[in-house]
Amino acid sequence: MYKGKSPKPKRPKVVRFYPVLPRGTKRLKTPYVLPSRAATIPCRYEKVMHYNLLTKSTRLFEPDKKNSRSIIHLGNSTKSYANNPGWRVAVAKGTNATSGYNRRVLSVKVSMYSCFSESSNTLSDGYGKITTSPIITAKSYTPLIDRATAQIRNKLNGHVGRAQLAAPIAESREIHRLVRQINGLAIDTVKALLAIRKTQGKSVLNLASNVWLGFGFGLSPLLKDIEQAAKSVQDYNSRMDHYVRLKGTATMDWTSGYSIKPNGTFPDIAYGMYVGETHNTYHKQGAQIIAGIRITTASSASYSVTDHLGLNVSSLPSVAWELVPFSWAVDYFTTVSPWLDDMFYTLPGTTIYCSQSLKYESRDRVSLLTYLKPGYSGYLSGGDSETTCLDFNRSSLSQLPSRSLRIKSVDEIGKSGLTKLLNLSSVLAQGRTKKI
């Protein structure tokens, strides 16, 4: 009979439930308070100005007539942010994990210059390094934020399938005039051609204006509204709750430049030679908005077919503005229409997170200019430098931003400038103030 030790029974395996988290995620036992962290790094360079001088009449050589070396502080590169080690947990749970972040990075590259000057009694040669602080001239971010917001709202409407049919229905009384204009187009064309000599071409101009305005403000929008209405009804019948991640981006860039011409009061880099500078700067500025939205058009009891087709009370201010005569011309120069749309806009869901990032970059190329006193000749070679600046700011928003009420910038007004010019010219050519 076997008298050995019996094997120990295995302990049952305890199964613990944990949510599925990304790899490397640490669980926090206690609520974590986001600490603010900051860092500052100075941006400096060594300014050098050195030249020798030889006096011909006395043959006196001064090897260090000017010998200047100093550390120049051009600014600080900074970084501040809120540390959030639990961001992976927040992402896994579908909550907001955005934290604030600010950074400025300054850099400088300076090349050595060499110079020479001569007069009837002196010879001088020198070398050195000179530059200036980075140029930081950011413009207003408001137009960029408005453009990024418009992109997100257009994408969101594409996911939801909403239509804005209140204004087309209110203007439906003009359809019969449009149909009559299309039916009589051939006869009107013949009449205008027959009267071209009598009216000195004004009849043809008036006909062209009527046709252009009828197509741009009547036929083309009507066809788009019909297509939008059919698609919107189909989207409403097949609507489902879902999550979307939307991104809107807007950028602009420009160049600037100026010169500081030297004279006898500027620093001398050789005997009788003074230095100034020329700046050529490239700027780039951008805004980006990222939003996570849970669309609840199917489960929400307050979302109805009138909301989906834009026939609710909140659409009345926008409709009233569109019915104002020549409101389209005012919208060429202002943001009244998008401002009204956003003021009374109701999001068809909930915002999980929304972050706004603003970025500005500048790259300044600095070239040296020289001024020689009368009776002196010489040259300067090298000495070009480049300074750069990068500003970045990220912040967390509770909801999508609303577009502001303002006068449009020159770039915004110039967009689709030919079409706008033709519309305004057609109205002026008709010589009447009838509502389009």
Comma- or semicolon-separated keywords:
35% strand, 11 strands
Nutshell version of this structure?
With 436 residues, this protein is an alpha+beta fold. It has one domain (36-430).
Low-confidence stretches: 12-34, 432-436
Please provide the ordered H/E string of secondary-structure elements.
EEHEEEHHHHHEEEHHHHEEEHH
What proportion of the residues form beta strands (DSSP E)? 35-45%
| Mean of all residue-level pLDDT scores | 79
Radius of gyration: 35 Å
Structural class: alpha+beta
- Please outline the major beta sheet: 11 strands, antiparallel
Proportion of helical residues: 25-40%
- H/I helix tally: 12
Distance between the termini: 110 Å
Shape: elongated
Tell me the number of structural domains: 1
Count of individual beta strands: 11
Explained architecture:
The protein has one domain. The protein is built from twelve helices and eleven strands. With 436 residues, the chain is α+β, with helices and mostly antiparallel strands. Helices cover 29% and strands 35% of the residues.
SSE diagram, text form:
Elements: E1 36-55, E2 60-82, H1 87-92, E3 101-110, E4 113-118, E5 122-129, H2 142-160, H3 166-170, H4 175-183, H5 185-194, H6 202-237, E6 242-260, E7 268-270, E8 273-295, H7 305-308, H8 316-322, H9 327-331, H10 336-343, E9 349-372, E10 377-382, E11 385-396, H11 410-414, H12 417-430
Helix pairs in contact: 5-6, 6-12, 8-10
